Input
Amino acid sequence: MKDLLKRLIPRRGEKKSHLITNVLGVLGWFLHMLLSILTAGLVCGALAGLLIYVRVKPELDSCMEIAYDKLAQMERSDFSKLSDTVIYDRDGRQIGLINAGHYQYVDITNISMNLQNAYIAQEDRRFKTHHGVDWIATLRAGLALVKHGGEVTQGGSTITQQVIKNTYLTQERTFTRKVVEILLAPKVEKAYSKADIMEFYCNTNFYGHQCYGVEAASRYYFGKHASELRVEEAAVLVGISNSPSAYDPVAHPEASQNKRNDVLKSMHEVGYLTDEEYEAAVSAPLKIVQQESEGTDENYQSSYAIHCAALELMKLEDFPFQYTFKDKEEYTAYMDRYQTAYSEKSDRIRAGGFKIYTSLDSAIQDTLQTQIDSSLSSFTELQENGKFALQGAGVVVDNQTNYVVAIVGGRGSEDAFNRAYLSARQPGSTIKPLLDYGPAFDTGEYYPTRMVNDHKWEGGPSNSGGSYRGNVTVREALNRSLNTVAWQVLEDIGVDFGLHYLSEMEFQKLTYVDNGVPSLSIGGFTNGLRVVDMAKGYSTLANYGVYNDRTCITSLVHQQEGELLKERKAVAKQVYREDSAFMLTDILKGTLTAPYGTGRGLALENDMPAVGKTGTTNSSKDTWFCGYTRYYTTAVWVGYDTPRSMPGIYGSTYAGKIWKNVMDQIHTGLTPWDWEQPDTVGRRIDPDNGIEDYYSLSAELRAEDSLRLKEQEKLVSQLETDIEEFTTREIQTVEDTYSVKEQYQSITSRLPLVDDGELRAQLLDQVESRYDYFSGIIEDMADTIAMYEKQKAVEESKAQVQAEKDAQEQRKKEEAETRKNEFLQALEAVEELEYQRSDAEKLVQDAIDKLPLVAGDPEQSTLAARLQAAISRISSLPTEEQWKTQEAQKESQAAQEESQAREQAALQQNQLRASLNREKFKWNNMEQYGPGGRPDDEN
Output
């Protein structure tokens, strides 16, 4: 430095030009140093920027992809939330509501300018001028990002960006979300006006207390519409939307008021409020109305409607419904899939946005509810949960439209549990037409005059009352509801064959455990059955065997997607044959009209043709009545939630009377309408019993086909079992080679009887393939087999010799026994003498002559001694004359005793007649008459 100064300070006498040159040199040096530093800084900055770009580029690319996807799918409806789900009856009246926040979208003209200005002042002061992004605010947020090491600590989002965040993104403060906002915001500004964006913003904000959108918030907090908000009220809502929990005016009124005043201050700062308006607003007290809106209204009608709507949504997505299952694995897997799909659809409906239009008739609903309530009103016992202990449920189906028109799940309106579709109970005998007799009629083997033996057998069911009638017709068996006959019928046609019919009618609650269980014939299901399924099943019979999958949903409209069921057509299918359904219907009329019908006395008024079936389970734990006319089908259940016996209550009592009362009322004014006899049904006199009744013209042919089918099923089943055993066995001994050949011959001799050629070839391939395997083993064992056969021949020869010896010995024993019996007959003839007969000597001589027949017998001496004793006894016997005299005396004494007994009886009769005359006088002079009451001819 010292040298430098020397160079800079001119010596005395040097020239002035030299000084200027030095100064310029120093300046040049400084400039060079400065340029070098700047160059180095630029290079370092470029390197740093490159490193940052490399690090950020993947995330930036991801943001671009997200932004594109959101923009490609953007619709105006995205900026509106879902309103409450509402359920309507057949007349368009609201019968239920699912609270989804009571959201109501309002357009910008119905949003107070006070609220709009408050949002602009507080959230985005350059809202009216920017193009979606406020770069000044964004730069401020970016500097904070750098300052805090990449952690997002503050916003900078415009109202446009917040609309994007509320609608398409999460609430997380992340770099990715911020970039996507920035990329989307200008696109949204181009697609929609500023007024649109403010409208979207106010309608998508959350204001706490289940208030989505400014209209719901205005109603809840201030009891007014969003268009009527005062400036201080608007400021409160702006504060809440910033943090609903922190600035909740109900839970935190002080914090809410402070935030309100902060918003008002912002409005004052930007000129939306004058000094006077500002002072008045901040001085205003915080007044919260807290207007409670209508909550979820869920009743028997609406809960069933939501259930059916969920099923409709599942059908739209072609969910593979299943109702019967081969094993536990299949059942469990299906139920997992079903519950997942059902819960998803149910949750979607409850999340809002649906208008569910139904076939439910509120007038019929009221009738059904009233009858259940009044009929069971005398049963006042309550459960611990406060519900009535004895319950009832019922369903009514319109047979012309196939829709459910009424569904009651319990007593009263306070119990929300809908037993008509949520609960499964044992159906008792009401299942017989659907599971036993309907399928049996379809086979052609059963018809009204078919005779079945009603009898008790070990391990079988009992009839109600414990009586059995022998051979009865199917008509009588069904009208009397004989359990033994129903059991035999289902066992004959096959349990799984009957279950297939329930599956075709979409009966829920069936399980793999029900497969092959004959007790199903009288209602012994694992889980039980639902009332609504029983109603739909009987409605199928009412409609000549045609099942229709309609529930109660007539229209399903979504707020954003419109009518969802416009392409969905009801599925109708012939489950029972038309002639089978007609004959069953005719038989079931007898339940109400036949002298032995279990529902006699329940016939409908106005001679309305009707049919029905009672159902009562063991100990009357569940009681049912199901019946129909051409117009309606009604199913009624009565029982306890926790099953217990109900002595004296049957299907024909409370359930039957509810059914009759409901059906009488809903048929008022309707013309009696009977079922027309199908062309496939005729009448004949049964050649086996002489009874005239309906029969199917194609029954005989179908019966032959059914019998053939049964034989084929039995043959195939046995073959499959034998082939399974044949193809899994192994040869371990020489004897196994013989049994393998025998089994092969047995199987191959029966295979030609299989009608199904493809199946027959398949089974034969299995057998031949396995027999080829066995043949190789047998060939390898040839020497061993030869030695075995030689040894076997020797053993069989020995066995033959022994068998001959055994046979000879047996013959000797039988001959000795025969000889002994011959002597014993002669001996017993001597021993049984009662007097000294004239042929006594001959009898004794015959016995003595036959004594050699027991020579060598172990009892020879004993038998000879018995004969000696018998000979000695003869001398002590009376002569023939003496014996006859003794017998005559015995007969005389017996006659005398009998005469005395008769004289005593005559005396007793006289005494009793005298007593009667005395007592009869008393009877005729008393006001109370004797046994039998007053004589019929008495005046």
About this structure: The longest helix spans residues 16-72. Confidence is low (pLDDT under 50) at residues 4-9, 150-154, 926-939.
